[in-house]
Structures are given as C-alpha cells and as structure tokens.
Amino acid sequence: MTREATILRETAETRIEVTVNLDGAGRADVACGIGFFDHMLCAFARHGRFDLKVSVRGDLHVDGHHTVEDTGIVLGRALAEALGEKAGIERFGSAFVPMDEALVLAALDISGRGQLHWDVEAPFGMVGDFDTQLAREFFIALAANAGITLHIRQLAGDNVHHIFEAAFKAAGRALRQAVAVDPALGGAVPSTKGVL
C-alpha cells in the first residue's frame, strides 16, 4: 500500500496543490514563488526521504505570508491523509542537525494533537525573498494540520540561513523516523488508547 496523498486548497489569496509520498526517495518538485522557501521545502523532503510536489500560486504582490502559511496548511493535511490510521508507525522521531555554526534539534510525536513549540532566535529580516518571521508560521500550520506535536529548538547559530536550513532538515529527518513502519507492531496503532 502506497502512503500517498494529494490535497488541493484554493482561497481568494492562494491556490496550492501538494502531493506527498511517504515511501518515496526524497525527490522534490517545488514551485512556491519564494526561492528560499522552495530551497527549504526541498531540503525537508530530501532529508525526510519522502517525495514531495508543491505548486503554489499566491498573492506575493502583498507579501509572502499567505503563501508560506497556506503551504504549511496544505502540506500538513497531505501528511495526515497519507498517514491514514497511522497503523504500525514508529510515531516518535528526533534529529539534531548541524549547519556550520548552527545546531538545531527537531523532535516530534504523531499524536493527533497538533502543536508547535518553537525556540529559535532568528533576527527579523529577509533571507533572499523570504521573511524570517514566516518560518515559525509555516511550522505552526504544518503541525496543526498534520496533527503532530513538533518541537524545534536552536542550540547554536548566528547565520539565519544556516539556522533555518538546519531546522527544516532536522524536521524532515525526525518525520522520517516517526512515519517509518515497525513490523514488530503488526499493524497496530502505537498507542495504549488504540488510536492516534
């Protein structure tokens, strides 16, 4: 069974289509209109080892907020749908990623209770055409819509490009661990409640 989903969401501000295959090879085809954000999503997919296709038409004449946040919403929904009943998954994942002077931890639980805990000190400003305030907005939307508890903690770093790249890569690697199927579970949901 392929764990794959495609979600299309269209509003007055954005039109976003996302396809995710959790059992892919880390291939990414991303076009959001914000170069740095495209780069981060490609890193997220590559280190998560899932295939990702993202097509976004957003109101970039306003700014990047709707494009970035809404992409998090749609990607989160696609991840949730691809996971289905979450039968046999590892559920938990964590990863430390160093990027030169930066070091970031991501840890997550596919709990069904979507929330972000963000401890990243990145200065306000721009990285290329990406507003640094939007990284947190993306991960809030992703966690809420995927139904995951996500912690992202910066342990070191000065260069905002390195900090964010470490965060996206760490989140991808943690997700890869959490969605992995554990044959020892025999298809059971990894919860004493029997449901996530």
From TrEMBL:
Main localisation: cytoplasm
Keywords linked to the UniProt accession: Amino-acid biosynthesis, Cytoplasm, Histidine biosynthesis, Lyase
Family annotation (Pfam families): IGPD
Transport keyword on record: no
Subcellular localization(s) per the UniProt record: Cytoplasm
Pathway: Amino-acid biosynthesis; L-histidine biosynthesis; L-histidine from 5-phospho-alpha-D-ribose 1-diphosphate: step 6/9
InterPro entries: IGPD_sf, ImidazoleglycerolP_deHydtase, ImidazoleglycerP_deHydtase_CS, Ribosomal_Su5_D2-typ_SF
Gene Ontology cellular component annotations, sorted alphabetically: cytoplasm
Alphabetical list of HAMAP family matching this protein: HisB
Stated family: Belongs to the imidazoleglycerol-phosphate dehydratase family.
Name of the molecule in the record: Imidazoleglycerol-phosphate dehydratase
Originating organism: Adlercreutzia hattorii
Gene name of the encoded protein: hisB
